[in-house]
């Protein structure tokens, strides 16, 4: 029994970390540019597929490093040519645009890499279990969680201590003033979008090592990420972090008791938060209105 | 002397409106006759009516209240499942199935509206999307009751009795189309009357300037909530018709992709026009039918339509015509 519990707790932690990476990227873009990026799951898949393409030449470690950067680069192109045009328009247009983009990207992935699942090879050492007792915990799972922890800490440090990070945080509160103070807001938004895509790409590479690749691998993560953002509190990245971990854990622990309800519990949390604490667990008053 | 001129200039505008109305209904009434000549089929016209009604219901909120819901497939799908489940498990009656479905979707929307009515803009949209997916997962995973991923089958629309007369709508022929058109006409008339009423005018005031509307004492939240609720009832009604049309309800009728389709139909036709969503639905349904018969990569085309509409055609067909005419 304890093994089942430990198994599901580690599962919850891992699913939670994916929700966190995905939701942090979405949250960054949402906070600064007021755009819900429906195509975020497709950037995740893109990152995974790029790693699949690059790993034969660069090896796993090279691919892990390069493919998120390439994903970010493609994010820059998408932002420059499309997303940027809808920033100051009714939110309906940004939703429709990224929604259409998600369709095109998914179809393109299916066209290029085929509809069937592909595996991403891992270095031999990583796929070993850490001990015979805990056979379900591979070194790869430990590695994945550590990469996410380092990335999230790095992101928060970047936003806290760097000049650009400071501008992003300030822009979240009042973009107009930031612009008046002489910051190039256009470039700031592009950069911010790219960082969001970088996180998506990284989670794509990590996820590909665990569950393999398929054209709609990001779809299942998109809704929980939305919910993580709402539950944590729109406007707060720390909130998004806790929101993602919370619903990942809740879903995994529900699996122990009653597997069929593992999706439902996420929505139950959403409803409870909307009912009892509409601004989210750590959200600021007024951010959602 | 100048006052005598005014009615003369005002009259053509009114008769122009009447002309458009006559044209719309003439096209809809004769669809079963000319559609096959163009290579279409009657069920396609039925689908246009159903999606058109759903999009018009959504537009009550989107175009006439200025509030963005990206989760209306939930109420559409609940309508469809409500009707399907009633026909399958409870009673073999088409009107009761429609009533049950409409109530299910409408009441769900009304209750959920209470939770999110204070959110605005993109956050409102995000809550509607997330909540909408709840029903998708429910229908998807409650296999025994809803048929799961394969959808709900084994139910049939039933003939409707009016005293001594019976309207047999069970066949594929035009009778069912005219039944759909009848329901559509009633719903659309109600919608039109609602928008002309003081309540409808208040919604427009909220859309144009929420802050000013609040300052003159309009209870904004209550109006947005009512608008959301009414819009969900109309969309749920369309959903029940969808179940009757196909004798089938599937989880995709609840999926957020369909919500996106409703929004894009509305935008293609013209968000701030009454008939725009119907026109948009016609364009979208016909295009999708055509493209998906031509290529397996229909997703790229549909996604491409979304992107092109947003970047180059944001006012939609009727919106563009109207602004040309005004210029």
Topology:
The complex is a heterodimer of chains A (289) and B (327).
Chain A: H1 2-33, H2 40-81, H3 91-113, H4 139-161, H5 163-180, H6 185-211, H7 219-232, H8 237-257, H9 262-276
Chain B: H1 2-34, H2 42-62, H3 73-90, H4 94-116, H5 121-141, H6 143-146, E1 160-162, E2 165-167, H7 174-196, H8 198-208, H9 210-215, H10 220-246, H11 256-269, H12 276-294, H13 298-312, H14 316-326
What is the compact description of this entry?
With 289 residues, chain A is mainly alpha-helical.
How would you describe what is shown here?
The complex is a heterodimer of chains A (289) and B (327). Chain A has 289 residues and is an all-alpha fold. Chain A has one domain. Chain A has 9 helices and no strands. The longest helix of chain A is centred in the N-terminal third of the chain and has 42 residues, at 40-81. Chain A is globular and about 60 Å long. The termini of chain A are far apart. By secondary structure, chain B is mainly α. Chain B has a domain at 38-255. Helix content of chain B is 75%, strand content 2%. Chain B has 14 helices and 2 strands. Chain B has helices at 2-34, 42-62, 73-90, 94-116, 121-141, 143-146, 174-196, 198-208, 210-215, 220-246, 256-269, 276-294, 298-312, 316-326, and strands at residues 160-162, 165-167. A two-stranded antiparallel ribbon of chain B has the order 1-2. In chain B, β1 and β2 form a beta hairpin. Chain B is globular and about 55 Å long. The interface between A and B is large, with 45 and 41 residues.
């Amino acid at each position: 029994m304890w093994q089942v519990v430990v198994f599901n707790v580690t599962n919850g932690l891992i699913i939670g970390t994916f929700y966190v990476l995905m939701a942090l990227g979405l949250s960054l873009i949402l906070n600064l540019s007021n755009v819900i990026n429906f195509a975020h799951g497709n950037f995740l898949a893109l990152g995974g597929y790029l790693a699949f393409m690059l790993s034969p030449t660069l090896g796993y470690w090279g691919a892990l490093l390069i493919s998120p950067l390439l994903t970010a680069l493609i994010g820059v192109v998408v932002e420059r040519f499309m997303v940027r045009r809808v920033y100051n328009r009714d939110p309906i247009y940004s939703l429709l645009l990224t929604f259409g983009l998600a369709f095109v990207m998914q179809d393109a992935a299916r066209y290029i890499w085929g509809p069937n699942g592909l595996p991403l090879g891992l270095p031999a050492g990583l796929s070993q279990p850490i001990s015979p007792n805990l056979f379900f915990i591979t070194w790869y799972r430990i590695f994945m969680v550590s990469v996410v922890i380092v990335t999230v800490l790095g992101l928060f440090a970047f936003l806290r201590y760097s000049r650009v990070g400071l501008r992003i945080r300030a822009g979240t509160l009042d973009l107009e003033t930031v612009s008046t103070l002489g910051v190039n807001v256009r470039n700031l938004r592009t950069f911010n979008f790219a960082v969001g895509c970088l996180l998506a790409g990284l989670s794509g590479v990590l996820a590909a090592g665990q569950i393999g690749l398929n054209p709609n691998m990001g779809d299942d993560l998109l809704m929980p990420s939305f919910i993580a953002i709402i539950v944590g509190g729109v406007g707060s990245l720390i909130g998004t972090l806790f929101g993602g971990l919370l619903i990942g854990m809740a879903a995994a622990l529900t699996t122990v008791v009653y597997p069929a309800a593992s999706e439902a519990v996420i929505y139950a949390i959403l409803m409870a938060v909307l009912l009892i604490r509409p601004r989210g667990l750590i959200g600021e008053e007024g951010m959602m209105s | 002397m100048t006052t005598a001129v005014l009615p003369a200039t005002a009259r053509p505008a009114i008769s122009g409106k009447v002309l458009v109305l006559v044209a719309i209904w003439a096209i809809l009434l004769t669809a079963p006759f000319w559609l096959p000549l163009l290579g279409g089929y009657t069920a396609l016209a039925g689908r246009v009516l159903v999606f058109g009604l759903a999009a018009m219901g959504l537009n009550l909120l989107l175009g006439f209240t200025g509030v963005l819901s990206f989760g209306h497939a939930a109420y559409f799908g609940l309508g469809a499942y409500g009707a399907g489940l009633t026909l399958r498990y409870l009673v073999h009656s088409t009107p009761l199935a429609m009533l049950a479905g409409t109530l299910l979707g409408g009441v769900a929307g009304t209750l959920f509206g209470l939770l999110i009515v204070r959110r605005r803009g993109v956050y409102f949209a995000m809550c509607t999307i997330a909540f909408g997916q709840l029903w998708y997962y429910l229908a998807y995973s409650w296999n025994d009751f809803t048929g799961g991923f394969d959808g709900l089958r084994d139910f049939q629309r039933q003939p409707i009795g009016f005293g001594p007369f019976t309207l047999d709508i069970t066949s594929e022929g035009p009778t069912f189309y005219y039944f759909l058109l009848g329901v559509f006409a009633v719903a659309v008339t109600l919608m039109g009357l609602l928008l002309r009423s003081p309540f409808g005018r208040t919604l427009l005031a909220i859309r144009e300037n929420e802050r000013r509307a609040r300052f003159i004492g309009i209870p904004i939240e209550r109006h947005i909530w009512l608008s959301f609720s009414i819009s969900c009832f109309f969309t749920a009604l369309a959903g029940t018709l969808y179940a009757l049309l196909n004798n089938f309800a599937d989880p995709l009728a609840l999926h957020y992709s369909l919500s996106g389709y409703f929004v894009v139909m509305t935008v293609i036709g013209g968000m701030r026009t009454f008939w725009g969503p119907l026109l948009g639905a016609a364009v979208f349904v016909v295009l999708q039918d055509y493209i998906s018969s031509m290529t397996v990569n229909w997703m790229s085309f549909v996604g491409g339509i979304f992107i092109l509409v947003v970047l180059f055609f944001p006012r939609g067909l009727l919106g563009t015509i109207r602004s040309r005419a005004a210029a």
